[in-house]
UniProtKB/TrEMBL annotation:
A Gene Ontology biological process term: chromosome segregation
InterPro entries noted in UniProt: Chromosome_partition/occlusion (IPR050336), HTH_ParB/Spo0J (IPR041468), ParB/RepB/Spo0J (IPR004437), ParB/Sulfiredoxin_sf (IPR036086), ParB_dimer_C (IPR057240), ParB_N (IPR003115)
NCBIfam families, per the entry: parB_part
Protein name: ParB-like N-terminal domain-containing protein
Native organism taxonomy: Bacteria, Candidatus Buchananiibacteriota
One example GO MF annotation: DNA binding
UniProt xrefs under Gene3D superfamilies: 1.10.10.2830, 3.90.1530.30
UniProtKB keywords: Chromosome partition, DNA-binding
CDD domains reported for this sequence: SPO0J_N
A Gene Ontology cellular-component term: chromosome
Domain ParB-like N-terminal: 38-127
Length: 288
């Protein structure tokens, strides 16, 4: 018999690491309720026949396999009861990684399909009622992506927002905890948070402290952010034109920001992403 174990207060392991649960109020409608996680035999779980992803080559799973080998499966799979065992709802890549690693069991939440649909409806309803602050919205969007295998575009259609709006909101989860809390507590508004998240990571906290200290308006914040951008651009202009051209070529091919740090004949290529979905899309494009 599968052995259940509690997950503490809330379904914390279903929340991506970038979602810091302590930031939100305990009664937040964006957070999952308390559920039980079961250790279920891998050979009892059937693949989801409605899985839209068909390309699962071993190479694309290597990073996940390495992570799971070192840390275990941190985010439980979600399954539903089947005549001969269980059918997978979400967690295809984790299941495949577990099979490669020859795991006997995997952590999973057993949920009826109807309950899964109710959860989706509850999240969408709260989003449409505008009962959530921007960070709670971002958490809800991320849950819809993680727990229902939705793309950002599909989330947008369900809640009546553009894909760009979904992406911009999800990016708020990359902000430091103090800035997320300030947004929740209305010390800063969404427009200011959007400006801050557009800055390089190392500039965000200093800029945020400056905003609070000087009590800047949105327009003033945008003006200060432009000064930061100009200084950064000036530093970039000093780069080798050939390197800048290669950065631009990669950015057009991948659809995201790319930086090349070159030292002699060696260096690094830094590719930025703002959600798990964007990371998966980048891996797919690079693999192709």
């Amino acid at each position: 018999m599968s052995k259940p174990f509690g997950l503490g207060k809330g379904l914390s392991s279903l929340i991506p690491k970038k979602i810091i649960q302590e930031v939100l109020p305990k009664d937040s409608k964006a957070l999952p309720g308390e559920e039980m996680v079961m250790q279920i035999p891998v050979d009892k779980i059937k693949a989801n026949p409605h899985q839209p992803r068909t390309d699962f080559n071993h190479e694309s799973l290597e990073d996940l396999i390495s992570s799971i080998k070192e840390h275990g499966i941190l985010q439980p799979l979600i399954v539903t009861l089947d005549a001969d065992g269980y059918q997978l709802i979400t967690g295809e890549r984790r299941l495949r990684a577990a099979q490669v690693l020859e795991f006997k069991t995997v952590p999973a939440i057993v949920r009826e399909a109807e309950e899964q649909q109710k959860l989706e409806l509850a999240l969408v309803e709260n989003l449409q009622r505008k009962n959530l602050n921007p960070i709670e919205e971002a958490v809800a969007f991320q849950r819809l992506i993680d727990e229902f295998n939705l793309t950002q575009e599909e989330v947008g259609k369900k809640v009546g927002k553009s894909r760009t709006a979904i992406t911009n909101t999800l990016r708020l989860l990359t902000l430091p905890t103090d800035i997320q809390k300030a947004l929740i507590n209305e010390q800063i508004n969404y427009s200011i948070a959007r400006v801050i998240v557009g800055l390089p990571p190392e500039q965000r906290m200093p800029f945020f402290k400056k905003v609070l200290k000087q009590d800047l308006t949105v327009r003033a914040v945008e003006g200060e952010a432009k000064k930061v951008a100009v200084k950064r651009h000036f530093r970039q202009v000093q780069k080798d034109p050939n390197v800048l051209a290669k950065e631009e070529e990669l950015q057009q091919a991948l659809g995201t920001k790319v930086s090349i740090k070159k030292s002699g004949s060696s260096g690094q290529i830094i590719i930025e992403f703002y959600s798990d979905e964007e990371l998966s899309e980048l891996v797919r494009r690079i693999s192709d």
